[in-house]
Structures are given as C-alpha cells and as structure tokens.
Amino acid sequence: MRACPRGHDLDGDGRTGRARDAQGYGRFTGDGAMALLSRHPIGAARDLGDLLWRDLPGATQPRRNGAPFPSAGAQAARLLSSTGHWVVPVKTPDGPVTLMAFAATPPVFDGPEDLNGLRNRDEIRLWQRLLDGDLGPVPPAPFAIIGLANLDPADGAGRRATMRALLADRRLVDPAPRSAGGRAHADPAQSGDPGLDTADWDDPPDGPGNLRVDYVLPSREGLDVADAGVVWPAAGDLADIAARASAHRLVWVDLTFD
C-alpha cells in the first residue's frame, strides 16, 4: 500500500519515519494512493504489492561505492511497488476482461545511485515478467495494462528503453492516443511525437516538459481498438478545465471484443 512505513531509512538521509522512508512517498498510509472505478462488476483482485523488489527476476537495485544503497537491510525490506500493481478481473456484458493497473514512481528525485530510475524501470518490467509466467498465474486474455508509468519512450528522465520495450511487446497493442492540445503545446527540443503527450509540465529547465507517461495498452489477443485519444483540446473551456484538474490528461481507449 502507498506510503506504508517500512521501519528503515529508505532514502539514505540517515533518518527514518519520514515521507521518503515510506513504501511509496507519503506522510501517512494511503497518501497518494490509487483507485480503480468500474461501471461493471469487479471480481477478486490479485495484489502484487507485496513483491519485494529484489525478488523480481532481473531486478537491478541501486548501489553506491560498490555497496547496496542505502543499505542491505533497506533493500531486503523494500517492496517493488511504490503505489500498487493490481490484476483486476472485470465482468462486462460482452465477456470478462482483466485490468492490470499500476502507478510507478517518477524516475527522478534521487541521486547518482538512480534509486527511483531503477525502481521505475522494474515497476514497468513487472508486467512483462508476469506475462512471461515468472510471477505466478498469467492473466488470461483479453487484458489491458492501464495506469501511470511515469516514463516517456523518447523524452525526459528515466530508462526510456524500458518503455519502448513494453510498447513493442507483441502481446500488447499501442493505441497511440493523440490530442490537438499536445501538438499545440509541443516543447521546442522534444524528440517524440507531441500529439502523444499525456502530461503538461513546465518546460526545461523548470520542469521535464510535456511527456507521454499515462497508458492504456490492451492485449493483442481478444480485443480490437476502435478508437483512442487524450482529452486535451488546444483551446476552449474543456482545455481550461483539464488544465485546472491536473497536469495529467485523461487517456481514453474504446475497445471491442474480437
């Protein structure tokens, strides 16, 4: 669970019991947590939040001066999920679909050891390891990975190749949702397609710039993409409402069962 205390100095500042020492950044248990809303009945969910980071196959934890950072004890206690990784079956009138929901830590706010960058990488990689059968039962198709990866495949901080690998996974489809607002607010030095951006942050050096960090990735098996987009008009009342609501913009994908 987000912001659950672990009893260790998890950020290496020599103190415990502070917001950065919680399982995910937070001042109290549940601070900054996520929720999943559905108009259709939800079945028994599987919570992968109790997986230790070190137990993910291929995990890479931070080191400083050749030693575990911030300590071996902290690494033995740290869970992988900063907020949550849920496998949630949903019963729709047309059949069941499994939602694999998560919110990963931003790959910033750390030091040269790249603690958050490495954790973000492995929080995203968890889904591929799950689909490979490395973490217990494989979710049945059709399914969709949904949530906040906090990683752009082309711009910004982080291990961007990790996001590119997930988007290129043959078991998934990238609907590539676009918006007029993303295109209209493109950053001058941007490498990726600004129409795909889902977050409107300050331009460098004051911020990371606009990035694609929110995703809906349906399974190739069992689902077809009818349409997709990002609620980010270039101007108008809805654009103002979206800007006041959050730096993130709503990603939507219309899916049909094949």
From TrEMBL:
Coiled-coil intervals: none
> Does the record's keyword annotation contain Magnesium?
no
Task: Write the Enzyme Commission number(s) for this entry.
Answer: 3.1.3.8
Q: Can you name one GO molecular function term for this protein?
A: inositol hexakisphosphate 3-phosphatase activity
The enzyme class is hydrolase
Matching entries from Pfam families are given as:
Exo_endo_phos (PF03372)
Protein name per the record: 3-phytase
Which organism encodes this protein? Answer: Limimaricola hongkongensis DSM 17492
The beginning of the lineage is: Bacteria, Pseudomonadati, Pseudomonadota, Alphaproteobacteria, Rhodobacterales
